[in-house]
Automatic annotation (TrEMBL):
It holds the Pfam family Hydrolase_4. One of its GO terms (molecular function) is hydrolase activity. The keyword Zinc does not apply. Keywords: Hydrolase. This is Lysophospholipase, alpha-beta hydrolase superfamily. The keyword Hydrolase applies. InterPro entries: AB_hydrolase_fold, Hydrolase_4, MAG_DAG_Lipase. Residues 28-290 form the Serine aminopeptidase S33 domain.
Amino acid sequence: MKSSEFQLTVSKNAIAFVRCWLPDVDVPRAVVQLIHGMAEHSGRYERLALALTSAGYAVYAQDLPGHGRTARAPDELGHFSEHAGWRLALQSMRCLQRELGEWHAGAPQFMFGHSMGSFLLQDYLSRHAHDLRGAVLSAGTADPGPLRAIGLALLKAEALWRGDDEPSALADHLTFRSYNRRFAPTRTAFDWLSRDAAEVDRYVADPHCGFRCTTGLWVQLLEAIGRLDARRAARVPKRLSLLAIAGDADPVCGGRKGPLSLQRRYTDAGLTDVSARSYPAARHELLNDQCRDEVTADLMAWLDQRVAAG
């Protein structure tokens, strides 16, 4: 296995930091592009990447705007952009995917999106899925419920009051703190992420994790989720293979309800290869929970079957 890091030019004023893991073969079986979640970074997916490269897959993972090493300074963490940040995140995904199509011409391309990355990926699929073989949506949902609209209204008011580039204590209270209360008594503020205490501790100790995101980022996220309706899903190519996964105890997507809602959404849109899977008692980060080996094996089996089918 060979690993490397590089910067990708996204626009005149924006770059994306990218990690790459390549298998020890001349031609990979397929290419997997990983899209991380909010308040984390691409380096946290190395364990999955190593498992995939051992099976012959090339893996690439970028740090989204305002995250990881794409952020140019600590005070940029948690803020997409002054203008059209969601669009910039989609653009960075597209720029990398285009490069991968050239570097690995002929290899099937897959995308994996976790949490916020799953919502970015849903939006992306409605625009650019024509050259993708399949996609995996982790910890996402097609049914955010009425709290999305309520939270959006509150955060828009906060943006008018404090500006959209300040870290939002309100959003943190409505989401992360609320999620954690479901697992009381808790040991840390992030017990909702995983049942594995060591993994939670790694997250807490990582300076590129757990930061508060700005009101502007939250507003753009909630607005985008509101646009992910049946009409958007209908734009996705019917031949695309799709897998939705989550932990049964994941407070972000409503546990198993999240994958099942996505399965219904894309099946109703006419996709013929859509499946959903949930994992008993698992929390938000399946790849860092006690069931991670099972989840990784399931992901690899799903990929293997689609690559073999052509």
